[in-house]
Structure formats: structure tokens, C-alpha cells
Automatic annotation (TrEMBL):
Subunit structure: Monomer.
Pfam families with a match to the protein in the record: Topoisom_bac, Toprim, Toprim_C_rpt
Organism: Arthrobacter zhaoxinii
Site residues (Interaction with DNA), renumbered to this chain: H42, R160, R161, D164, Y169, W176, R330, R533
EC number: 5.6.2.1
Entry similarity comment: Belongs to the type IA topoisomerase family.
Name of the protein: DNA topoisomerase 1
Chain ranges of the Topo IA-type catalytic domain: 150-601
Gene of this entry: topA
InterPro entries: Topo_IA, Topo_IA_2, Topo_IA_AS, Topo_IA_cen, Topo_IA_cen_sub1, Topo_IA_cen_sub2, Topo_IA_cen_sub3, Topo_IA_core_domain
Location of the Toprim domain: 12-132
SMART domains reported for this sequence: TOP1Ac, TOP1Bc, TOPRIM
Length: 910
């Protein structure tokens, strides 16, 4: 790299990192002579094509901000919000003798370093250094292992960025035209959405099957009791849930399918039968610890054990890394450094005993060739890392919980295997009607806990019928063949097969990793994107696709097959890895992808040759015979298509789909019920005598309401519209009159579209009703909200009795209510202002309380004030959860500490 000699040496070494938090930690280890500053992430990126200079919009750059005529050369611009930062960095560099680029060591970090070089154009020596953890030892090692920017890694990041721009900007407009405005397609997000939709399709197609079995309670001569389950009758295996297809059909022809009558009859025939032990099979049991955390396994386990979303996991991990508590949190590798292995083994020995540490060190290897550019696993930072007890005073809440999880997993990974034995017992008898029945029980006895003393891995949800259907896990008495047993109870029980479980964030991350789709650093952003776009919502921990996601996935499957194919998407990731290793060229690869060879014809040709797409078919799903679900502009609805001979102008029957009804819950029976009970969509109530406008009552997506119809402007209205003038004084054609917003009003719970009157509708549309002002001049209104009728004075809301009181309550009555103080604390603690169920993170109930400084949301752990712009009655559960999550991310508020101004240091003249 060219170096220009400077006239004056200052001794200053400028270090640029990505975030201020990381910079603050690093600065404490570097000592004098180093100045650390942050770039705040990427300083430049591809602009929106609409923001390009006019002279470029008609060139090969105009469509994507990527020059299609010049080897896909990207057109980068410094982001508007980063111009000030770039100016600060240039100023800091002017009097520096050396520049150290200390951004993260993955592709994004390498690209940030490269962009800094391109923009700052340093004339001093430049060093690239990375560290897997922010500790004194790691930084000292990094200073001894400095290198140049890795151009191959930068090429891979740039290729990924251009690839995502080509993919999104070519396919998303098709979704806008055929499904709905504002939708987006993405290389990984579309495939993740498809996975969730396919699982919901499986649940929709699922048909339960019923089966019966017997569970016996047996006792030995020593009166030790245990349970065993029926496994065979007359030598034929008894069917369990695993023997049925998702269509409810029995897969095995040899399995015996017991119905209720057969099971009850067999149970009765075995009541007095003589049972004996037919066989006992004992085997040694060994279980190895799980490998240290990679990014994906950390997200999975934090989801299972801590109830963190992927986004929260990565945000908390980022803070732990930047403050020097853990190693870098984006990695595919489960490998540990020698220092970490030694630390884990030493701590395991000290805390649990020498016998808990195996003689041989455990070595873990990852599957990825790149393993995120050779980072090691996520573990506590340092050559001799700290125990949870040692960080308890400096870490709180989510940060402590995640650190403790990482520490436990790391230490357990170097501990001894768990040891024990498993026993499987077969018990038999002949019923009174001559049928041979055999029961089975199995149990595991752990004789040495090994790594389980520190940590045990969690499990994802499985089908009820995929769980062990015997009595696995129960402790069994000592038994041997030919032992006689007494049947204390033989009970027949019925079961029903269950559908495939929905994905959780943890299981979706696991599936994406297994398929090789995306990279650990992208999983959290991918899941956040598909939820923010409305493709997926959460129900507890389960991910539920929206109906619009069904339309999007169907369009992509039918017209962009390769681009939502799992193998194809995984191959794209492998190709990017090849580019990062210098084994493939960026330009050649992008040419193949966009113009052909990479896929059969290339994305450009596919989009240009799409032909006509039937939007109605894409947005329609047959739910029952003669009933179709349509995805419309205002949400999903059911419709009975009109017969071919229906008179012109006839409207088909329609019914709204409840917002909280998941796709798999919309069965054929439910669809028929909704159609039969659907209220009329619209009923004309009459004319407003004051405005002459028609008033109608409608059933909407969010409940019944009334609305006034605003007529379209007439020719006379247009002719009388105000005339505007250009700056040169020439008249401009009349503008269309400003569209008047219609008045609306939600119906009370006691009202319906069929019964509401014109008089009631006119009153509803006048809400909120102004009652008057108090002595200080504050206006008091009365209105209806989600939690019932209430008074409002500024930010002070008070509930009132029934909805009907909205029209009858007087100012004097309202003032009387406000004269009574809200009860806080003491024996007469006021009830919560609102309740929203359990928080998905803390699992504590979320409530809104009235505090000293106004209403606030709390789960008993985290508090956040209700924004002034939001009325309590309008607050939703989703908003409450989001506000609490944001507060957790910020951490506890710190009181400002007054500091004396530091003396100004003399600076070199610039």
C-alpha cells in the first residue's frame, strides 16, 4: 500500500472499530499513543435507484445502482447519515502516523474496512487487525499478526450485496403487481417463509387418526410398582401414532390397530391374568456433551431455555462481546482455542471435581469449510475466563442469563460423559379369551452425571405421538426373567395423532442451518424481516404464516421455482464461500446468475419472459367445496364464486376471516360456519340530514362500524377547483379537489350491523364527545376504546361504566370522577389499567399501571412509560411487548454523573 512520508510525526495511531462500545473497551487495553474511534458500521452502500444522479438513471446503473454494462460494478455512495462521521474520521486521520482498521473479522467487517480505505484514502501505513475477543491478551496477539485487507472476502461480501439487490429488485415488483404493494422478496427470507408455509400446509392437510392402547400398573413381590405399555397382541405389534400417515391412514399392514371396543375388551380379559417377566435387556448408557456454541446453536438454545428471540439473542451477545465478556458471536465453528480448553477443564475440575474431567481433551470440528473465516466457538472471553459468580456484580438481566448459558455450555463441552445403564423389560400374559398380550417398559439409571452436572441441552417441540410412547425414563425395580408380577391396574386409553409442530425461531434456525441456507450472522435478521413484513406472526413461540405469505410463496413456486428451491439457495451460499476463498470470480459468477448458465436461463430472462400471471388464482385457496379464500387488499375473506348463469351485477356471498384464526384452523367445517353466520357486509341506514350524505353500517376486519359515503367529485366540482399557477405566472390545469376523509364510528358491543339505527350511527360518528373544560382549562372528552368507555383529560384517562354512558355523562359527573385521586399502593391498590398476558421473554404478566409520572407498562421486571402519543385504550399487546423489548435492549437507565471539564490538550496545527 503506497505510503507518503509526512513532514511531522505525531506518534498518534488511529484505530477504527465499528461501534463505540467496542472502541471504549479496546481503548482501555491499547494504552497511550492510540486514539480509538468508531465508524458506526458501514459508511457507504448502494443507494436507491431513485436517488441516483439524473445522468445515471438512463444508463446501465439506473436499474439497480449496479452497472450492468460494466461487470456489475456497484455504485456506492456515502450514506446521508454518515457524511458527518466520514468528515470526523478524515479529520482524525490528518494528524495520525498510522491507521489500524480493527473492524470485525467476518465478511461484513472486512468490507467495512475496505470501504474505509476507499473513502479515507490514507497516506500513512495501514494495518488490518482482528481479534476473536476483546481482551488484553487477544489484542496483544492481534497487534503481532497484522495483515492487509482480504480482497477475496470483500469480493464475496460485495457479490452477496449485489446478488440480494438483483434478486429483490427484480422479483419484488412482481409481488407488488400480483399480490400487494409493499411486499418484498429476498434470497433467504423467501425460502424461510416457504418453510413456514409448507409446515402450515402439512397441518392443513393433516387428518387425525384415533387409536387405543393399554397401560398396566404392575407390582413385584416386594410391592415395588411400575408402569408398562402394551406393545403386541398375539405376536403382532400394536399400532402407535408413528404408524399413521398425516392423512390418518395406517402405514403398516402388520400392525394391530386397536379401537375402543377391542382395547376395553382386552383390558377386561387381562384383569385376572397371570403376568410374568419374559425378558430383561440391560445395556450400558453413555451420553456425550454438546459442542460449544456456534451462532446458530446459541440462537436455538437461547430460544429454548431463555425464551429469547433470535434478534434479542444477537443483540445481547453483541453487547457481551463489545464489553469483553464473550468471544465473537458470529461463527460457524464449534472449535475452542487451547487456552479456552485449558480454562474450561480447570474450572470443571475446581467446581465439580477432577473425576468430572476426562483424561483426553475434547476437540470439536465444524462442518463449514469457511467456519466464518476461522473464528472459534462462542465462549467466555479471556485465556482464563470468568465464572458466572465472578460477573454477577457487573452483568444484570438478559446479559447475565446469556453469559451464564454460554459459560455452562463451554465448561460442559470439556467434561466427562454421563454414564449409566438402560433396562428394557418385556412382560406377558394370556387373557381369559386366549389372546397373548405383551407389555414393555424401559428406564435409564444415571450412575455418573458427568457433564450433566453443569449443563444439559434443550429440545425442540415434537409431535405428541413422536414422544416416547413407552414408559421410558421411569426408574424400574430390579427384575429378572420368569419373575411373577401382579397387575394392579390395566387401563385402556384412547389417543389421537397430532399434526407436525409449527416452527419456532429455534427450530427454524436449526432447519435453515441443516439445509445450508443463509449464514449464522443472517438468521436473526431473516426471521425479523419475515415477521416485520407480515409474512409470519408468533403465537407463543410458534411461527404462524399469514395468508398473504401463502400467496407470495405460491407465486414464487410457480414462476420463480429455482429461487425458492432449498438446494439452489444452499448452492448460492457455497458459491459465495468459494469467492471468499478466491476459488471463483465475482464478475463471472454474477454474469452466470443474472444472464444465464447459473440457472437455466438467468434471472433477467425469467423476469422478462414471465407472461401473464393470473393474480386471482395466485391469491385464491380452495378451503371447502364451493368456498374459496381470497387474499384481498384489506385482508383475507371467504367467497362463494357465482355460477356461470348468475345475472350481471350479482355480488357473490362473502364472509370475513377472523384475524386471530390461524390457517390450519380454517377447516372446511369452519369455513361453512363462517359463511352461514356471516352478517351482511353492508346495510344502508339513511341520509345525514345535515350533509345529505348516505350513512352505511359495515362489517370490517376489525369489527362492525358505520361510515358516511363521500361522493366522487363531479365535473362541476372539478371546474370550480382552485387554479394554481406556475412560477412564471402561466395557469396550471385545475387540481382535483382534496378528498374529504369520511367520518366513521365503531359500533358498541350491544349493537350490530342488522340493528344499528341512523340516529345511533350519527351519534357514533361524532365521538369523541367534548364535555367541556375543568377549572384550569383542560378539555375533557368521553369516548370508547379497546377496554371500554373512558374519559380523557390530557394523558389522564378514567374508565366509566357502560358504553351507553358515553352519550349521557355530564361535565359535572366527569369532574366528580377526576376529583377522586387514583389509588396507588397501600391496602387499596388500584387494579391494572390494562392487561396483556404473559411476556414472551420474561414469561411474567404484562400490565399497564398508573405511576407517579403517568401510565407505564411492566412485566414486574422491566418498566417503560407509555408514550404520550398513545392512549392506554389504543395500546395493543404487540406494542407493549415491543416497548418492553426495546427497554431491555437499552439496559437500566444510568443517572448522569457530573464531571469536571478535563483540561484541553494542545493539538498539532492542521
Amino acid at each position: 500500500m503506497p505510503v507518503k512520508a509526512t513532514d511531522k510525526k505525531t506518534g498518534k495511531k488511529l484505530v477504527i472499530v465499528e461501534s463505540p462500545a467496542k472502541g471504549k473497551t479496546i481503548a482501555g487495553y491499547l494504552g497511550e499513543g492510540f486514539e480509538v474511534t468508531a465508524s458506526m458500521g458501514h459508511i457507504r452502500d448502494l443507494p436507491q435507484p431513485s436517488d441516483l444522479p439524473a445522468e445515471l438513471k438512463k444508463t446501465g446503473v439506473g436499474k439497480f445502482a449496479v452497472d450492468l454494462d460494466n461487470d456489475f460494478e456497484p455504485y456506492y455512495v456515502v450514506s446521508a447519515d454518515k457524511k458527518k462521521k466520514v468528515a470526523e474520521l478524515k479529520a482524525a486521520l490528518k494528524d495520525a502516523d498510522e491507521l489500524y482498521l480493527a473492524t470485525d473479522g467476518d465478511r461484513e467487517g472486512e468490507a467495512i474496512a475496505w470501504h474505509l480505505l476507499q473513502v479515507l484514502k490514507p497516506k500513512v501505513p495501514v494495518h488490518r487487525l482482528t481479534f476473536p475477543e476483546i481482551t488484553r491478551e487477544a489484542i496483544q496477539r492481534a497487534l503481532l499478526e497484522m495483515r492487509d485487507v482480504d480482497v477475496a472476502m470483500v469480493d464475496a461480501q460485495e457479490t452477496r450485496r449485489i446478488l440480494d439487490r438483483l434478486y429483490g429488485y427484480e422479483i419484488s415488483p412482481v409481488l407488488w403487481r400480483k399480490v400487494a404493494r409493499g411486499l418484498s422478496a429476498g434470497r433467504v427470507q423467501s425460502v424461510a417463509t416457504r418453510l413456514v408455509v409448507e409446515r402450515e400446509r402439512e397441518r392443513m392437510a393433516f387428518r387425525p387418526a384415533s387409536y387405543w392402547d393399554l397401560v398396566g400398573t404392575f407390582a413385584t413381590e416386594a410391592a415395588e410398582k411400575f408402569k408398562a405399555r402394551l406393545v403386541s397382541v398375539d405376536g403382532a405389534r400394536v399400532a402407535t401414532g408413528k404408524d399413521f400417515t398425516d392423512r390418518g391412514e395406517l402405514k403398516s399392514k402388520t400392525a394391530v390397530h386397536l379401537d375402543e371396543a377391542a382395547a376395553v375388551s382386552l383390558a377386561a380379559g387381562l384383569e385376572s391374568a397371570a403376568f410374568s417377566v419374559r425378558s430383561v435387556d440391560t445395556k450400558p448408557y453413555t451420553r456425550r456433551p454438546a459442542a460449544p456454541f456456534t451462532t446458530s446453536t446459541l440462537q436455538q438454545e437461547a430460544g429454548r431455555k431463555l425464551r429469547f428471540s433470535s434478534r434479542v439473542t444477537m443483540q445481547v451477545a453483541q453487547r457481551l462481546y463489545e464489553n469483553g465478556y464473550i468471544t465473537y458471536m458470529r461463527t460457524d465453528s464449534p472449535a475452542l482455542s487451547d487456552q479456552a480448553i485449558n480454562a474450561a477443564r480447570r474450572q470443571a475440575s475446581e467446581l465439580y471435581g477432577p473425576e468430572y474431567v476426562p483424561e483426553a481433551r475434547r476437540v470439536y470440528k465444524g462442518k463449514s469449510k469457511n467456519a466464518q473465516e476461522a473464528h472459534e466457538a462462542i465462549r467466555p472471553a479471556g485465556d482464563s475466563f470468568r465464572t458466572p459468580a465472578q460477573v454477577a456484580s457487573s452483568l444484570r438481566g438478559d446479559e447475565f442469563r446469556l453469559y451464564e448459558l454460554i459459560w455452562k455450555r463451554t465448561v460442559a463441552s470439556q467434561m466427562a460423559d454421563a454414564k449409566g445403564s438402560t433396562a428394557s423389560v418385556r412382560i406377558g400374559a394370556v387373557s381369559t379369551d386366549g389372546r397373548d398380550a405383551e407389555f414393555s417398559a424401559s428406564g435409564t439409571v444415571i450412575t455418573f452425571r458427568g457433564f450433566m452436572a453443569a449443563y444439559e441441552e434443550g429440545r425442540d417441540a415434537v409431535r405428541d405421538d413422536d414422544e416416547a410412547e413407552g414408559t421410558d425414563g421411569a426408574r424400574l425395580p430390579v427384575l429378572k426373567a420368569q419373575d411373577t408380577l401382579t397387575a394392579a391396574d390395566i387401563a385402556a386409553g384412547g389417543h389421537e395423532t397430532s399434526p407436525p409442530p409449527r416452527f419456532t425461531e429455534a427450530s427454524l434456525v436449526k432447519m435453515l442451518e441443516e439445509l445450508g441456507i443463509g449464514r449464522p450472522s443472517t438468521y436473526a435478521a431473516t426471521i425479523s424481516t419475515i415477521m416485520d413484513r407480515g409474512y409470519v406472526t408468533s403465537r407463543g413461540q410458534a411461527l404462524v404464516p399469514s395468508w398473504i405469505a401463502f400467496s407470495v410463496v405460491r407465486l414464487l413456486e410457480e414462476h420463480f421455482t429455482d429461487y425458492v428451491d432449498y438446494d439452489f439457495t444452499a448452492e448460492l451460499e457455497e458459491d459465495l464461500d468459494r469467492i471468499s476463498r478466491g476459488e471463483a470470480g465475482r464478475v463471472e459468477w454474477l454474469n452466470q446468475f443474472y444472464y444465464g448458465d447459473r440457472v437455466e436461463t438467468g434471472l433477467h430472462t425469467i423476469v422478462n419472459d414471465l407472461g401473464e400471471i393470473d393474480a386471482k388464482a395466485i391469491n385464491s385457496i380452495e378451503i371447502a367445496d364451493g368456498i374459496v379464500l381470497r387474499v384481498g387488499k384489506f385482508g383475507p375473506y371467504l367467497e362463494r364464486p357465482l355460477p356461470a348463469d348468475a345475472p350481471e351485477g350479482t355480488e357473490p356471498e362473502r364472509a370475513n376471516v377472523p384475524e386471530d384464526l390461524a390457517p390450519d384452523e380454517l377447516t372446511a367445517e369452519k369455513a361453512v360456519e363462517l359463511m352461514e353466520t356471516a352478517a351482511p357486509e353492508e346495510r344502508v341506514l339513511g341520509t345525514d340530514p345535515e350533509t345529505g350524505r348516505t350513512i352505511v353500517a359495515r362489517n370490517g376486519r376489525y369489527g362492525p362500524y358505520v361510515i358516511e359515503l363521500i361522493p366522487e367529485p363531479t365535473e362541476e366540482d372539478l371546474a370550480n377547483a382552485p387554479v394554481e399557477y406556475y412560477k412564471n405566472g402561466k395557469p396550471k390545469p385545475p387540481k382535483k379537489p382534496v378528498k374529504v376523509k369520511p367520518r366513521t364510528g365503531s359500533l358498541f358491543k350491544s349493537m350490530s350491523v342488522e340493528t344499528v339505527t341512523l340516529e345511533e350511527a350519527l351519534k357514533l360518528m361524532k365521538l369523541p364527545r367534548v364535555l367541556g373544560t375543568d377549572a384550569e382549562g383542560n378539555e375533557i372528552t368521553v369516548q370508547n376504546g379497546r377496554f371500554g368507555p373512558y374519559l380523557k383529560k390530557g394523558t389522564d384517562s378514567r374508565s366509566i361504566g357502560s358504553e351507553e354512558e358515553i352519550f349521557t355523562i355530564t361535565l359535572e359527573q366527569a369532574l366528580e370522577i377526576y376529583s377522586q385521586p387514583k389509588q396507588r399502593g397501600g391496602r387499596q391498590a388500584a387494579a391494572p389499567l390494562a392487561e396483556f398476558g404473559a411476556d414472551p421473554v420474561s414469561e411474567k404478566p404484562i400490565v399497564v399501571k398508573d405511576g407517579r409520572f403517568g401510565p407505564y407498562i411492566t412485566d414486574g421486571i422491566t418498566n417503560i412509560t407509555v408514550p404520550r402519543s398513545t392512549a392506554i385504550e389504543e395500546l395493543t399487546r404487540e406494542q407493549a411487548i415491543e416497548l418492553l423489548a426495546e427497554k431491555r435492549e437499552k439496559g437500566p437507565a444510568k443517572k448522569p454523573v457530573k464531571k469536571r471539564a478535563a483540561p484541553r490538550k494542545a493539538t498539532a496545527k492542521k
